[in-house]
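User: quick one, fold this
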Amino acid sequence: MTPAAHKALWDDAREYATRHPVDSATPAWDIPTWVRTSGQVFGDQTQHETATHLRNDLYGAGPLQQFLDDPTVTDVLVHGDRLWVDQGHGPQEIAQSPLGQGQSREWAVRLAARAGTRLDDAHPITDAQLPDGSRFHAVLSPVSDADATMSIRVFRTRHATLHDLTRTGMIPRQWARACAQAVTHRASLLISGGTGAGKTTLLSALLSHVPHTERIITLEDSREIATNHPHVVALQAKPANVEGAGAVTLSNLVHASLRMRPDRLMLGECRGPEVRDLLMAFNTGHSGGAATIHANSVTDVPARLIALGALAGMDPVTTSLQAVSAVNAIVHVARTPAGHRYIKEWGVLRVGHDSLLTVAPFARWDGDTTPKDVPLPAGVERPAWW
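Assistant:
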């Protein structure tokens, strides 16, 4: 196909797509048939490739779509015309980036529009969710030192089970039963760890072990939790509109969920004043839930909880007393420099002599050798299900 014919075909396709918009009630038009009847001469392979490129250009992420479609990819990172993908072992740069010079800004703006957000010189930073559920963050020049910087956390509809995580080495074989028992015994868990350590992966796997007779409600800023459990209600916070109205916070979602007959509450990430509402829910009959929290180690969790409690107007002592009563165990996940994710530590919260929150680790693993139990201080016991 000549360059002129190629441009004409693309222009015709975009015009057709504009006149036949796709929404949740309208199936996508048959692009392969449209290409075949376009009047251009194609071989079977070229016809298939052209239809795929058109579909990705009109409804997907263009040159990035091939990576979003790869089931092994968890993150796609763009900086100008350079591209990295993470397949579970840390970001690896793609030597032959499919992004041409200047294309990163064009696609950042287009993806933001598809996510229903604004991205331009007046609003050079956006955080949104793509139609397929992937989390999308973009920064334009001059805030970024490239034309555009994009970070896409790929959303997967199926997440690993506890068995899968044991098989791949995230959970040591000796702890597999304890993880399942924690769910069975309705332990309220806090999953801590750094960015990309596997907090949501573990949370989703735990959900797969919840009895199918129970109703799970998930609460998230952007949807990441996915499970094959048959009864999951997913609630998602939303920012205010351009008039500053219509915001729905995680605190709002916690309040709403309590009136939805939940058996389990799962908070995707606790990072603000919603900690107060979550602890109150766990302390008032809604046991068996879980939440994730950013922390560098299991012993850093108390300080993190107290800081979040302060955002909710809670003093340190109140936060400490609420947390030690609400949370049955903390499980900390880590990631090695090589990208291996694993459960590193378990701990229980307790209140010290100064009435402030501390944590007592009771089991530890380095991701390689045999996991070990850690001696506990006098008066502190391991959970009954351990």
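User: anything notable?
Assistant: The chain has three domains: 1-59, 67-156, 162-373.
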